[in-house]
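To illustrate the input format used throughout this study, we show a single complete record. The first block contains the structure-token representation of the backbone; no residue identities are included at this stage. The design step must infer an amino acid for every position from geometry alone.
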């Protein structure tokens, strides 16, 4: 069960954004309460850097996390005119200020779907909005716990941004144009990765446009087959067959510029699960964000960026919320 702050608490906390106001006499009791329950004594220089960064309202990328019917977001990256960079703060107190300024009830965040910004939604509750009843705990975390916020976002949303305006006016193909662009993939591309036409029914397919400002979008196709192994007696063991194809517009139509494939063997490449596409560096060309599981216990969020007529990894981050 989740609790929301009373209107009195919200009124106190909504004036807490600037650091100087946080320390003012009117909020001193609330601030002391937060400090005593959440934050270790902060290194002053680290706290100064954290407070300046958070108060500047940096553009932040969030990952959506689901538990039961509830939806949460937690910060994973800073966005700027360069590839994403992992968001890190030096102090627990800094993360507390981040929670107040961005995740407490009533703040605006923007869901991303198909590379396009959806209508902003309001956060419903911050991590430490009620200091005595945190939204979540990580008992084994010896470092700073990254806060998460309670939200309600459209179904299928995997990434959310705050303090960041996604480009608008990007060209997208109509449904008919999209079908024409990918029509020949089963005949001309899939056979090159050992997938024949009669096997295609075993695969699920995801199609996503990758928006471009002032140009034709790229097209991403993900094919995935989780059929059981046919060469093992291990019950329930699976060997997913997985292909990611990116098509770019050329003189004679769309052609593959990047193909990523794996058969799911232990010594093969890991499987990429598409999260969404986001123009994370403000250059008008969206990056591709994947979730990848490299072992039963280790996974990462990856960003791929287009360059030199192919796509390369430019950033990765563990989705762990304990910042060691």
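Output of the design step:
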């Amino acid at each position: 069960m989740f609790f929301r702050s009373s209107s009195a608490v919200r009124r106190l906390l909504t004036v807490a954004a600037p650091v100087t106001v946080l320390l003012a006499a009117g909020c001193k009791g609330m601030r002391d309460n937060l400090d005593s329950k959440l934050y270790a004594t902060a290194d002053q220089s680290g706290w100064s850097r954290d407070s300046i960064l958070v108060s500047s309202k940096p553009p932040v990328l969030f990952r959506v996390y689901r538990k039961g019917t509830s939806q949460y977001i937690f910060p994973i990256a800073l966005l700027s005119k360069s590839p994403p960079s992992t968001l890190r703060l030096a102090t627990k107190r800094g993360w507390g200020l981040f929670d107040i300024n961005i995740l407490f009830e009533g703040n605006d965040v923007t869901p991303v779907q198909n590379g396009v910004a959806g209508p902003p939604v309001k956060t419903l509750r911050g991590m430490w909005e009620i200091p005595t009843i945190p939204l979540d705990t990580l008992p084994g975390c010896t470092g700073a716990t990254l806060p998460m916020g309670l939200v309600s976002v459209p179904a299928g949303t995997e990434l959310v941004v705050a303090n960041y305006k996604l480009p608008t006016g990007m060209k997208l193909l109509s449904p008919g144009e999209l079908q024409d662009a990918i029509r020949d993939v089963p005949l001309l591309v899939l056979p090159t990765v050992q997938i024949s036409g009669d096997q295609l029914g075993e695969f699920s397919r995801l199609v996503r446009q990758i928006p471009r400002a002032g140009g034709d979008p790229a097209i991403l196709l993900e094919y995935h087959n989780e059929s059981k192994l046919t060469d093992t007696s291990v019950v329930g063991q699976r060997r997913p067959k997985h292909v990611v194809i990116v098509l770019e517009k050329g003189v004679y139509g769309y052609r593959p510029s990047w193909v990523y494939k794996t058969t799911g063997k232990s010594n093969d490449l890991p499987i990429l699960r598409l999260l969404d596409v986001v123009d994370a560096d403000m250059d008008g060309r969206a990056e591709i964000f994947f979730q990848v599981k490299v072992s039963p216990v280790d996974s990462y969020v990856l960003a791929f960026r287009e360059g030199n007529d192919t796509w390369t990894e430019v950033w990765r981050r563990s989705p762990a919320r304990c910042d060691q």
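Structural context for interpreting the output: The chain has two domains: 7-162, 175-323. Residues 175-323 form one domain.
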